[in-house]
Design goal:
The chain is α+β, with helices and mostly antiparallel strands. About 30% of the residues lie in helices and about 25% in strands. The protein contains four helices and seven strands; from the N terminus they run H-E-E-H-H-E-E-E-H-E-E. The strands form two sheets. Strands 4-5-6-7 form a four-stranded mixed sheet, covered by helices on one side. Strands 2-1-3 form a three-stranded antiparallel sheet. Helix 2 runs antiparallel to helix 4. It is elongated and about 90 Å long. The protein starts with a helix and ends with a strand.
């Protein structure tokens, strides 16, 4: 039993020596690579909008210098696709007169998005665009209502 203790200690010591020696990192001199970068760091975030392609919703990502509020994202829907997005066959059903939007969260947790255009003037696809774009933000409720100047659309969830 006494002979096993020195063997075990020797094996442990050898294993530690092999682990340290086998790490593959060799010492080197300082490597000069030039000046460090200067100036402000350009941080971008990605926003998700739902546009229309071939009569169906299509999730589109756009870079943004900062996170956008729901009302700002919905304003982008009303402004329509970028030139590049139009070239890819994307469009919007949300009319320009729907902007500005008002976002209200009810005590029940339901969100109501009120467009400047009457809710009844929005096509079903425009309502889906609005609901899905608003729901794309973290923390959004599952069901969202879209209202207009004179009418309201029942609560919806994003089918996309």
């Amino acid at each position: 039993m006494r002979a096993a203790l020195p063997r075990r200690a020797l094996a442990t010591g050898l294993a530690a020596l092999v682990a340290v020696a086998g790490c593959g990192v060799r010492p080197s001199d300082v490597i000069a690579v030039g000046e460090p970068p200067k100036g402000p760091v350009a941080l971008t975030t990605t926003i998700i909008l739902y546009l229309v392609q071939d009569g169906r919703l299509s999730a589109v990502t756009r870079p943004s210098a900062r996170p956008l509020f729901r009302t700002e994202r919905l304003a982008l829907l009303a402004a329509g696709p970028t030139e590049e997005e139009r070239a890819r066959g994307l469009s919007t059903e949300v009319p320009p007169e729907a902007d500005p939007f008002l976002v209200t969260v009810k005590a029940s947790g339901r969100m109501v998005l009120t467009a400047s255009a009457p809710g009844g003037d929005l096509s079903p696809l425009a309502v889906q665009q609005i609901v899905c774009t608003a729901a794309a933000l973290p923390g959004s409720p599952a069901r969202i209502s879209v209202a207009g100047a004179r009418t309201s659309v029942d609560p919806r969830d994003c089918p996309a």
